[in-house]
Amino acid sequence: QRRVHGGHIGLGTFLRTKMAARVQLATFGAGCFWGTEKFFKKQFKDGLLSSAVGYMGGDAAHPNPTYEDVCTGRTNHAEVLQVKYDEDKVSYDDLLMFFWRMHDPTTLNRQGNDTGTQYRSVVFFHTPEQRDRAVDLKEQLNSSGKFRAPIITEIAPASTFWSAEDYHQSYLERNPAGYCNHRLYW
Asked: Contact, 76 vs 57, CB < 8 A?
């Protein structure tokens, strides 16, 4: 049975007591969650305290969706990566900039060969400050000329995080030759 995480990933007593003031939560949808997780773990190494792939942003009528449910396109959930990170080692701005760099945020419901609403580009914010930073950086990037088309990334409040099935967690670490269409765009 998969567990629902009401907006956080459990890290154990040590992290809750010793580091809670500097631990933050971030959630991103950038296409297939396998590649998103792989790229973030590689880029931020020790700055990420935990990561989990799952589903967020779907219709309330579809709680605790399975991968098969999400793939039908009827739940409106996005495949997401949720991370807890150490603010002393990585900033939210760093995570955001890397998010926009490692996928194509100008395509609607598509990343490479993957199509459907579950593959949309989305930042789920957990605080008003995260929302403000995401909106500001999105506007800066749209004005920068780095992309040939406007960024269409959705910026939405975080909702319930539904953990994906165990076989999806750290998938590309266990299956290094597995499918991944992510790359660094700039």
From this structure: yes
The answer to whether the beta carbons of residues 103 and 182 sit under 8 Å apart is: yes
Catalytic, out of 32, 123, 141, 164 = 32
Return the structure tokens found at 82. Answer: 């949720």
Could you give the CA distance from residue 78 to residue 73 in angstroms, rounded to a whole number? 9
Tens-place pLDDT, residues 48-83: 999 999 999 999 999 999 999 999 999 999 999 999
Compute the distance between CA of residue 58 and CA of residue 69 in angstroms, rounded to an integer: 11
User: Is residue 32 annotated as a catalytic residue, yes or no?
Assistant: yes
Whether residue 45 contacts residue 33, with contact meaning beta carbons closer than 8 Å, is answered with: no
Which pLDDT band, with edges at 50, 70 and 90, does 20 fall under?
low
Concatenate the DSSP letters of all residues of 13-75 into one string: HHHHHHSGGGEEEEEEEESSHHHHHHHHHHHHGGGEEEEEEEEES--TTS-S--HHHHHTTSS
For residues 23 and 165, the answer to whether their CB atoms sit within 8 Å is no
Helix (H, G, I), strand (E, B) or coil at 142: helix
